[in-house]
Amino acid sequence: MRKLSLAAVLLTGSAISTPALAEGHLQIVDEPLELTIQMNHARYPIYEEDWPVEQAAREMTNIHLLNDTVGANMRTDENTGRTEALNLMLASGSIPDIVGSSRIRDFVNQFGPEGAFVPLNDLIAEHAPNIAAYYAERPDIEAAVKAADGQMYYIPYLPDGKYGRAYWIRTDWLEALDLEVPQTVEEYEAVLRAFKTQDPNGNGIADEVPFFARQWPELIRLVTLWDGRAHGSDTYHDFLVEDGQVSHGYIGEGYRDGISNLARWYEEGLIDAEIFTRGSSARDFLLSENLGGSTHDWFASTGGYNSLSSEIDGFAFEAMAPPASVGGNRVEEHRRILVKPDGWAIGYTNEHVVETIKYFDFWFTEEGRRLANFGVEGTHYEMVDGEPIFTQEFLDSGPVNRSLYQAGAQLQARGYFQDYSYEVQWTNEFALAGIELYDQGDYLIPDFLGVAFTADEQQVYDRTWGSIRDYMLERQQSWILGNGDVMADWDAYLAQLDQLGWQELMGVMQSAYDRQYGD
Amino acid sequence: MSGVNLSGIVKAYGALQVVHGIDLTVAEKEFVVLVGPSGCGKSTTLRMIAGLEEITDGDLTIHDRRVNRVAPKDRDVAMVFQNYALYPHLNVADNMAFGLRIRKMPKAEIKTTIADVAEILGLTPYLDRRPADLSGGQRQRVAMGRAIVRHPKVFLFDEPLSNLDAKLRTQMRAEIKRLHNRLGVTSVYVTHDQVEAMTLADRIVVMNDGRIEQVGTPMELFNNPANTFVAGFLGSPPMNQMKGMLTETGAKIGDAEIKINGAVAGHAGRDVIVGIRPEHVTLSDEGQSSALPISLDLVEPLGSEALLHARHGEDTLVFKADTNGDIAHLSGVGAVHVPSHLVKLFDAETGRALNLGT
Amino acid sequence: MVDENTNAGGQPLEEALIKAREAQRRVTDGRWVRLFDHFKREWQIYAMLLPTIIWFVVFLYKPMYGLQIAFKDYSIFRGVADSPWIGWEHFQTLFANDQFIRAVRNTITISFYNLLFGFPAPIILALMFNEVMHATYKRTAQTIVYLPHFISSVIIAGIVITAFSPTAGIINTFIGWLGFDPVYFLTQPQWFRPIFVGTGIWQEAGFGSIVFLAAIAGVNPSLYESAVVDGANRWQMMWKITIPSILPTILIMLIIRIGNVMEVSFELVILLYQPSTYETADVVNTWIYRQGLQSGQYDLAAAAGLFNAVVAFVLVMTANTLSRRFSRTSLW
Predict the structure, then answer these.
(1) Which chains are adjacent to chain A, needing at least 3 Cβ pairs under 8 Å?
(2) Mind telling me which PROSITE patterns this protein's record contains (chain C) (predicted)?
(3) More confident residue, A62 or B357
């Protein structure tokens, strides 16, 4: 923190010494204008006025944001994406001028039409040339952002880069057992079995855990190896779209076959026996104990475990291309989603909506985008050959993402367009090699970008989806654990889903989808 | 055959000795009262007899059987507790039947026994009631009933009347005495109330500081207290005690001198404590021979009698006098006359009674 | 009030005087004046009462205002007052939902097991402690059994998950020694209830025993001495004296416990359950949490909560009435 304040002081000093910057073309108002903001995210629960990036933005735009965050609650639910801080804010009865949060889309799409947030379509068209230009290029994303009434109520965080997770395998174990990197699901199974039975870690005990995952839904993703689908987006158990039809992975035959095979794998011990309860420390524990063989996890963080080679002789955990499914398809179901439900919106009591939308637009200008991505020039990065390059000092000051958050950059509770080149500069070699490998094939499939409901549709969704999801997960786990046979239970399973209102749910999903993305 | 015999009984809690070797024989059918101030070891002694406390040293026999190591239930004693120890969840009949059931007495027999005892104690109408619905006196009777039904060799009473009000206490005292006369069971009774001790006991055991001060019938103890402690404990109000010095004919107390019968002649000059019972004096005018001049502080009328609180020099004294229906004549009292044969003398150092050859 | 009785002298003088005096007081001191006098005289007692009253009003009575959202289409933005009434719709939704019905059934089942096994546990523990003579041993043992109470549910769940782990857990290690295959307890519906109830006992029995130990300490020691002289052994004393003596405490605790039947400690359920064990583990409160709070359906959650409260209220009333009738012990 101390370092930060020092940087802030330096920055202020430099800003004063270069008044030209303050009077530049980015300035939105002549006299400083103060706006209140609620900003909440798991990693930065409140808005901090002395973030260097914010101070720079203040100098550039003359707009001063004041922290007005209610309930700095860090909880965000992974499954439903609700943040309690937003609910608290609404319950408190006052909405600040700007509200920025992770998982804000469903929230503003519900309460925006009720009048809590300012509709943005006209404002963008008239006052936000940079945002409008982006949407002109990506109408699909513009559609994804809109609420059921056709209005946009928030400016999203737009991630850049394609890849998120990949298949990882202990290539040193493959070598030790004289095996090749598996190219098909059959080979993958054979390799996992070899890990289980041939003692690749050489301790004489069959304690290897061939496949493990930090989040058990990653196990379900393996159904893609039998041409099934699991999660339609980076939200687990999400819907998916096939040829303009909304559907769900958990009712497909490929899913059924996949679960049947995964149950067999589980029975055989190819999957971590504790997959459902081991939790987030699974990767850390199983890799450092020289037990884990393969997983499906993020490029950057998983690649970092290769530093374990200093402790475990020959340790090499490398990305591999998705094995070909039984139908011969290589599919990587997970990807960086094109638009996040994170970002910021304008509260209905805001008296300066034009200035605010201009301020939002500022972050989509070249300077604003660079500021949001890289931090402050001279402090966090230098321009080299026209490219922003992080200073070595900054890269060395600890985990880069954390340092960026602490500077106020890469805040996903802010609507901005990410620049992937920020990440390439410090991604480890194993991850980069993996990304290169994935770039050679065309493994990614389109994401489901979500829909916005009308009040009536929302009611149907609320009434049915929770029960249906619970039932799906309940059966899914049971089948994998061997309590029941998916093949025998399948028809009854589908019948039960129908009884829980599956058709009705699909009906509202489809009507919402058609409204949002249809021509 | 003795009922209960204690010889050299010692009780110590670790290094702290609270009963220092007691010798006492309670004859069969005798009613013995242990009396003394709180902390004198009387309750501890009783609890050792009951078997609720271990005996550190010495021998305890009940009906000539040594019972030091015998469990309470096999000593054939029954105990009545200060707070009655009635089971609040059981009715009167079940309370009395408790010990019998534990001993697996046949049901029919239990029934008749309880009916008999309830009749004796006047509890028959209350057999179905719980203790909470009884008066203090009734509870006390149930507690005794519970002891009586057992037909024990020895009754032990641990201050059984101290939770009752004064009127009930007098009533129950008489009842206990009658019961003892009727049942004739060896009884050891602990109290701190000397009136109870005097009225109930065949023999009284006065205890102090874990030792027996004196054993005897109530009148023996009253008439011939063995020491100043016993003298000060028994009697209501207790005996007045004054420092004095023997002369050829009596004792000099402050400036005054009272006459004493007997052979004091040879002991002139000896320091003594002079004991005078409050009721043994007659009122007189000043100047009479063998009269003790007093200055009167207060007259407390009790009805037929009155208590006179007075002073002689440093000593505070209490005397009893007849009122004859009026206390006005008592206000002018300036001296008391002490009959010379009723004056008690105690050694000034040891407190023991002096017998100078009467 | 002049009638024959008075004339006949049936009313004693004293009584008449009292009446006259009271009548006079009624005239001079009005009700409010007397109330004022009362407060002036006893204000310290009311001052002591005040924090509790404030607590009740702020945390229990004021929130009752929000109960109405169970009958409304509630929007946080519109607020409680401005959301439209929709009658019993949320309750219809609830009872049309199989999972809610299942959650109710699970709640009652788990509570029943909790009552059956969890309620006697602290009593038995207290009775056992009461029999322990060695002071140091007793103190140490008590501290050890109290400890789990002070551990947060998150840690407890971690301990349970570790203990029942199929690969490293102590339970499965033991099962392995006996020559059986490891069991993945926490994913099997039939194991959830025993593990949950057992965990609850392990966590709370020790602390719960304190109230019973206190009750036992309140038993007049001379009852035991009397029983000793009467020839009772320790077992008989426990059954015939200790247990009957603490029976009122037991009943009161039981009534309170019955009032909490719908309140299965749902943090622990959430931490221990899995989709594969929903079948036996999903209770009303976890259902409310998933469907209501996580999905922002506060109105539906309020309806479920209200249902819970009504059931609990009826149960407590019933238990209290039965207890008062049959054992003369009751909460009120």
Answers:
(1) C
(2) ABC_TM1
(3) A62
Q: Say if residue B59 is in the same domain as residue B123.
A: yes
Q: Is residue C307 part of a domain?
A: yes
Question: In terms of domains, do B259 and B151 share one?
Answer: no
C115 vs C125: CA distance, rounded Å: 15
3-state helix, strand, coil in chain C (%, to 5): 80, 0, 20
* pLDDT, position A10: 42
Asked if C38 and C163 sit in the same domain, the reply is no
User: Are residues C231 and B88, on separate chains, in Cβ contact within 8 Å?
Assistant: no
C319 and chain B: CB distance < 8 Å anywhere?
no
Compute the average pLDDT of residues B87-106: 90
The single-letter code of the amino acid at C71 is F
Q: List Cβ neighbours of B86 (8 Å cut-off, separation of 6 or more).
A: B95, B131, B139, B142, B143, B146
Q: How far apart are the first and last CA of chain C?
A: 40
Domains in chain C: how many in total? 2
Residues (pLDDT < 70) of chain A are 1-23, 71-83, 519
Calculate the alpha carbon distances from C46 to C33, C49, C60, C313 in Å: 17, 5, 20, 29
If asked whether residues B196 and B89 sit together in one domain, one would say: yes
- For the ranges C40-49, C148-157, C161-170, C189-198, which has the lowest average pLDDT? C161-170
Binary contact (C244, B102; C-beta < 8 A): no
Q: What angle do CA B46, B49, B51 make, to 5 degrees?
A: 110
CATH of the domain at B86: 3.40.50.300
Tell me whether residue B357 is in a domain: no
CATH number of A2-159+340-419: 3.40.190.10
Q: Average model confidence (pLDDT) for chain B?
A: 88
Question: Are A274 and C165 inside 8 Å of each other by CB?
Answer: yes
Q: Locate the chain C residue with the closest alpha carbon to B99.
A: C230
Specify the pLDDT at position B313. Answer: 83
In a domain, residue C332? The reply is no
DSSP annotation of C85 reads B
Q: How much is the pTM?
A: 0.74
Give the pLDDT of residue A8: 45
Query: Does any domain span residue B298?
Result: yes
Chain C residue numbers with beta carbons less than 8 Å from the beta carbon of B83 are 220, 222
pLDDT of residue A12: 43
Residues C113 and C37 in one domain: no
Where in A140-215 does DSSP place strands (E)? 155-156, 165-170, 209-211
Q: What sign has the CA pseudo-torsion B85, B90, B94, B97?
A: negative
Q: B343 is written with which tokens?
A: 């004056």
- Give the range of the structural domain holding residue B85, as residue numbers without chain letter: 2-233
Which residue in the set A111, A466, A483 is minimally distant from C188, CB to CB?
A483
Please write the tens of the pLDDT for every residue from B310-320.
988 888 899 98
Residue B1: per-residue pLDDT = 63
For residue A419, the tally of other CB atoms under 10 A from its CB is: 17
Do B260 and B332 lie in one domain? The reply is yes
Looking at C20, C41, C71, the residue that finishes a domain is C71
CB A479 within 8 Å of CB A259: yes
Q: Looking at the structure, do residues B218 and B285 belong to the same domain, yes or no?
A: no
Gap between the Cα atoms of A120 and A440, Å rounded: 40
| Domain span holding position C16 | 4-71
